[in-house]
Amino acid sequence: MKIILLSIGTHGDIEPFLAIGEFLKDKGHQVICAFPDQFRDLAEDSNLEFASLGSEYIELLDSDAGKTAFGGGGSGIKKMVAYLRLAGKSTGINKELIFRQRELIEGENPDRIVYNGKTIYPIIWGLYKPGMNILISPVPYLHYVKNNTHVAFNSNYGSFLNKLTFSLARFGLIITVRISIKWLKITEKIMRKQIKNALLTNKTIYTISPFVFSRPDYWNKNIKVLGYHERNKTVNWYPDKGLTDFLKRNTKILFITFGSMTSPNPEKRTGIILDVLQQNKIPAIINTASGGLTKPDKFDTELIHFVSRIPYDWIFPKIYGVIHHGGSGTTHMALKYGCATMIIPHIIDQFVWNKIIYRIGAGPKGIRIDKITVKNLEPKILELMGNTHFKNKAERVASQMEKEDYREELYNSIVG
Question: Is 226 a domain residue?
Answer without folding.
Answer: no
